[in-house]
Design a protein that fits this description.
Number of strands: 9
Strand order of the largest sheet: 3-2-1-4-7-6-8
Mean pLDDT: 91
Radius of gyration: 19 Å
Order of helices and strands: EHEHEHHEEEEHHEEHHHH
Oligomer: single chain
Shape: globular
Distance between the termini: 36 Å
Length: 300
């Protein structure tokens, strides 16, 4: 099964506040280690993986001898040649829609901090799958009347009662639904230069988590989910969730709590070294890993 990661430096900041205005790729240790686990685990258990990114990030990975981490390659052409005009910081996930438009079904869109520990083919029950649904009453999902649109934009005839979904892992098994989601996402963002003023990233999540499910529904595809619900520790079939780990909101805590950050990094280093011994040479050459360990006996 094919999957893709996406990362762009065009937004001036990440969703949790990391400054990117220098246009220089520089992953914090916990992000880089989660990314490595995300790639290695997906490749071992589920299939191939590609990265869509820009030249600066491709150079960052090459400098760390990580350019071959993605077995389906690193693509800088798609994001580098986009004609999309928008507020990239407001729509900080814009590049994922561009990548989705370039892909074909069946495919998975995978967050770089989402780790899939086991095979998931058996969990696919529809031509559109997301990690979990979310309630419409989450404050981040503001009413249609409060959403700024590009000049001349007209809403499609969507069902606004359709539940949103978390976009950290999405499966597009139907080519028509994939194309419709990507086309409508780009149409909503192009020429939309709205500034995000609220603390909650309403526009940042609207395209993937609100618009995509409505497009899927209009395409006649039923949305299904890998987890029982957004707060559940169970898979959709009722089994304990030992398959998915997503850092997501925990990143903010890691930025503020240095001890928690180092503890998690060491856990991830140990897990990579144990599960993927063939990767140890590359792992222990990484400057981010060296900084975490600081001579720790784990290196011996």
């Amino acid at each position: 099964m094919r999957a893709f990661h996406v990362y762009s430096l065009r937004p001036e900041a990440t969703w949790y506040g990391r400054d990117q205005r220098a246009s220089r790729c520089n992953f914090p240790d916990f992000e880089l280690l989660a990314l490595i686990l995300s790639v290695l685990c997906w490749r071992r258990h589920n299939g191939s993986l590609r990265l869509y990114t820009d030249d600066a990030c491709a150079d960052y990975f090459a400098a760390r001898q990580l350019e071959n981490l993605w077995d389906d390659g690193i693509d800088t052409h798609v994001l580098g040649t986009t004609t999309l005009e928008t507020n990239f910081t407001t729509f900080w996930a814009y590049a994922r829609t561009i990548a989705l438009a370039h892909e074909r079904a069946p495919c998975f869109m995978l967050d770089m901090d989402m780790i899939v520990w086991k095979p998931i083919a058996r969990l696919i029950r529809s031509d559109f799958m997301a990690i979990h649904s979310e309630p419409l009453n989450f404050p981040v999902y503001i009413p249609r009347s409060q959403l700024a649109t590009p000049a001349g934009y007209r809403w499609e005839d969507w069902d606004w009662t359709v539940l949103p979904c978390n976009a950290s892992l999405m499966y597009f098994g139907d080519e028509g639904a994939r194309r419709y989601c990507a086309d409508q996402g780009l149409r909503f963002m192009h020429g939309n230069f709205v500034e995000e003023t609220a603390e909650l990233p309403a526009y940042a999540v609207f395209v993937e988590q609100r618009l995509y499910p409505m497009c899927v529904h209009k395409s006649g595809v039923t949305a299904r989910y890998f987890l029982h619900d957004y707060a559940s520790e169970l898979l959709a079939d009722g089994a304990p969730n030992d398959t998915f780990t997503h850092l997501w909101l925990y990143k903010r805590h890691l930025v503020a709590d240095h001890e928690a950050r180092r503890t998690l990094c060491i856990r991830m280093i140990k897990r990579i070294a144990l599960d993927f011994p063939e990767f140890q040479g590359t792992l222990f050459r990484l400057p981010e890993v060296d900084a975490v360990l600081c001579g720790n006996a784990l290196r011996d």
